[in-house]
Amino acid sequence: MRRGFGERLGLPGALGPLPLAPLAPEYGKLTEGQRAAGLRYAGEALTDPQERADGSAFVSVLDGVALCTPRRRRLVDEAALLDRADARPAHAPVLRLLAAIRRQDPALLRRVLLYQLLPLARQGADGLGLDPAELALLAKASRTLPGLDDRQRTAAEALAPLWSRRRLRACAHAVTALGPDVLRADPWLGALDARLRRRLDRCDRDLAAAGSAAPADPSRAEAGYLRVLAVASDDDAAVRGLIRLGAVPASAGAPLTTRPVEGGRVALAWPTRPGVRWRVLRDAPGLDRATPVPGTGGTASTAVDADPPVGLRVRYAAFPVEDGRPTGVPLVSHPLLVAPDAEEAVVEDGPARIAVRWRRPRTATATVLTLTGPGARTLRHTADHAEEHVFTGLEPGAYQVVLTARHPSPTEGTVDAPGVLRTVTVHPWPRPLTALAADAGPEEGVRFTGQGAEGAEVRLVVWPGGTAPAPGTELRADALPAPLSWARYGAPGHTVPDTAFAGLVSAVTVLGERALAGPGVRLDVPGPVGAPRAAREPGGQVRLLFDWPSGAGAVTAAWPGGDLRISRSAYVREGLRLPLGPGPSRVTLRPHVPEDGAGTGGAVVGVRRAPVGVDVPGEAVVRYRLLTRRRGLGRRVPYAVEVSADGHDPAVPLPELVLVHQATVRPRHAEDGTVLLRIDGAALARAPLQTLGLPPVPDLSRPPYALRAFLLGDGAGAVRLEEPALTTLVVR
Questions:
Q1: Which of 370, 407, 508, 397 has the alpha carbon at shortest distance from 452?
Q2: CB 458 within 8 A of CB 489
Q3: Burial (Cβ within 10 Å: 0-12, 13-18, ≥19) of residue 371
Q4: Are 537 and 547 within 8 A, CB to CB?
Q5: SS3 assignment, position 146
Q6: Helical axes 92-104 vs 27-37, angle rounded to 10°
Q7: Buried/exposed 509-545: b ≥16 CB within 10 Å, e otherwise
Q8: Which one, of 554, 563, 556, lies nearest residue 585 by Cα?
Q9: Torsional class of 633: left (φ above 0), alpha (ψ -120 to 50), beta (otherwise)
Q10: Nearest to 661 by CA among 674, 672, 677
């Protein structure tokens, strides 16, 4: 019958002392790799799931770490671990860390695996790929050992990394957390505790000697503190002793300078020493120990503490170090109260007020604002969470605003930041215009009046985009649009723009460099009628031509005895004809305004424009008739022409009159025949009635023939030619 391991020796003799701490510096990385690979303990990386399931290979740990098969047992050395790492990429990081642990100490690999297996065996875990007999034995043995809670397990796993970095004070805290029962159950831990106590006792004696020598013999004290740090690099008493040795009086300049910067950070700077590496610590009465400033440890002579302890007076120390160990007295700063000031503080003046905005530091509980003005008047306001405040009811003058951020302090209750000072002048501001009215004139133009704005200049402007700021909006005079050249506030008489205007006219009150937006009024001002002219047509009709006024929907034409309104579409389609009769007349044209009269607020004010007149002269008429005499057989033949002209404007030349002869047919135009007679316009205008003899033409004695007069030249279309009866013009 096969007996289990150690059955003859008894449980204690077979197993020996079992580990309650891994004591491997790489243990933290090992557990991270295990979690990433999904392993319950590191030994699972030695076998694959199929081997663990069918038992074809398993791990043995009680008599050295070995990989066993039913026919063979092979010790796992460093080479075997590295070979398996190459063959199993998924478990390679864990296997290489196990090889590094095995390289340090072959027994350390077994210790690490047993440390991980004991709690699993106590819980009854299976499928671990471990020899079943050894697993059962470990389960029995685990029940005889003290169990570790989470705090103790954390302390046990931290011992080796702390010891490797000579952080003996932290090691002592970890050993204390394990307790005496754990130290007695694991001889390795008991031996570590004894070594630790001997070293710390020697450190305590050196600390006492250095403290006694410090006032009289700083060099001896420095040497003592450095000896302590060479053994226990985290000895806070030695660190603070060196900081005290490097401190300088407040009246002297500190070799390490500090400067608060934006975001509550502290900028540090100290003299450069080529080739020296530095480690910067911060120390304060409220801190348990001097702590490193993150990001330091190189050769740079500047640093930034991104998260200093708020509310404490912090002293910084830059230690020269070699291999992480201080080599001398540090460069020490003066104490700095860490209380960040308010940032991005902005003050702006307004009408009888000062508006203050700032960004509160994230650690501040309140911001105190102190305002001092003319006559030593002082106002205070405490803003708990707000980041803006407005002081009102202020007189013009110079003011100072101090913003003081208030922070909680672990030692002093609350502390105040140094404060941010801002100066501002409350300027005289114009009084607002409370109402604006636009009164349209009865004939033409508009007049602007309003209420308020005493002592201020009122400008009338048009804002770009047609959107005006709300009344009362504070503005700068140099940012205003140019005033309207045709609009005058409060001036007598009415004004009108040269061209069409439709939009919002806004008032702005101005005093010096400051302005206030006021109310506005909407206007509708059509453009003027352009280039009017008249042309007479038969029957006393007159055709009016003009350039249509921009912005107008209709135009009104007025003359003595009547008026007419015509739309733009009708004018384009049909033109404008008026029944003025033959006599002279005058026609006035003006754009039609839908809403005449005054309006305020949001109403649209229709503004009249002065009418444009055009004089229409009387109808010019030229008459002619043939004078005939009897000749043979009772025939009457023409011998002269009687011509008259009336109704024409003396200042306007008359056209030329020509009399044309054509055999057999009536002439159709002035070139359709022979010209018998030609009378220029000036001759027509000289006498109201004149008779002109016809020249002797043989053809006139032999009918049939036809005569006809025509008007030629400029203005011929505006003069009506009144012809005699056709029977008098055709001779047969």
A1: 508
A2: yes
A3: buried
A4: no
A5: coil
A6: 160
A7: bbbeebbbbbbbbbbbbbbbbeebebebeeeeebebe
A8: 563
A9: left
A10: 674
The answer on pLDDT for 262 being more than 70 is yes
Lowest average pLDDT, out of 284-298, 447-461, 675-689, 695-709, goes to: 695-709
Neighbours of 198 (CB within 10 A): 10
Write the pLDDT tens digit of every residue in 417-435. Answer: 999 999 999 999 999 999 9
Question: How far lies 13's CA from each of 5, 6, 18, 62, 206, in Å?
Answer: 11, 7, 11, 12, 44
How is residue 125 annotated by DSSP? -
Q: How far is CA 380 from CA 352, 355, 389, 402, in A?
A: 17, 14, 11, 10
Which of these, 367, 369, 358, lies nearest to 339 by C-alpha position?
A: 367
- Measure the CA–CA gap between 258 and 316, rounded to whole angstroms: 8
| Phi, psi (deg, nearest 5) at residue 130 | -105, 150
For position 633, what pLDDT does the model report?
64
* Residue found by looking up tokens 């005499």 in the block: 629
Q: How far apart are CA 162 and CA 310, in angstroms?
A: 29
HSE, CB side, 13 Å, CA atoms: give it for residue 21.
31
Rounded CA-CA distance 181/540 in Å is 134
Q: What is the DSSP string of 395-425?
A: PSEEEEEEEEEEEEETTTEEEE---EEEEEE
DSSP secondary structure code for residue 247 in this structure = -
The whole-angstrom separation of Cα 474 and Cα 465 is: 19
Q: How far is the C-alpha of 416 from the C-alpha of 600, rounded, in Å?
A: 56
Alpha-carbon distance 589 to 544, whole Å? 10
C-beta of residue 477 within 8 angstroms of C-beta of residue 469:
no
| Residue matched to tokens 């663990």 | 52
Burial of 703 from C-beta contacts in 10 A (0-12 / 13-18 / 19+): middle
Model confidence band, residue 701 (pLDDT cutoffs 50, 70, 90): low
Helix (H, G, I), strand (E, B) or coil at 152: helix
Q: Structure tokens of 108?
A: 């350390």
Calculate helix-pair angle for 150-164, 168-178, nearest 10 degrees. 150
The tokens for 501 are 């205007």
Position 3 confidence tier, pLDDT thresholds 50, 70, 90: very low
Go through the chain and tell me how many residues it has: 732
Q: How far is CA 563 from CA 428, 577, 606, in A?
A: 56, 12, 21
Asked whether the CA dihedral 325, 329, 330, 335 is positive or negative, the reply is: positive
Name the helix (H) or strand (E) containing 319: strand 313-322
Cα gap 279→293, rounded to integer Å: 8
Residue 477 · residue 514 · CB < 8 Å: yes
Please state the φ and ψ torsions of residue 391, each to the nearest 5 degrees. Answer: -90, 125
Q: Rounded to an integer, what distance in angstroms lies between the CA atom of residue 651 and that of residue 685?
A: 10
Amino acid 519: pLDDT: 94
Confidence band for 14, pLDDT divided at 50, 70 and 90: low
Residue 602 pLDDT greater than 60, yes or no: no
Do 117 and 128 touch, CB atoms closer than 8 A? yes
Residue 313 · residue 285 · CB < 8 Å: yes
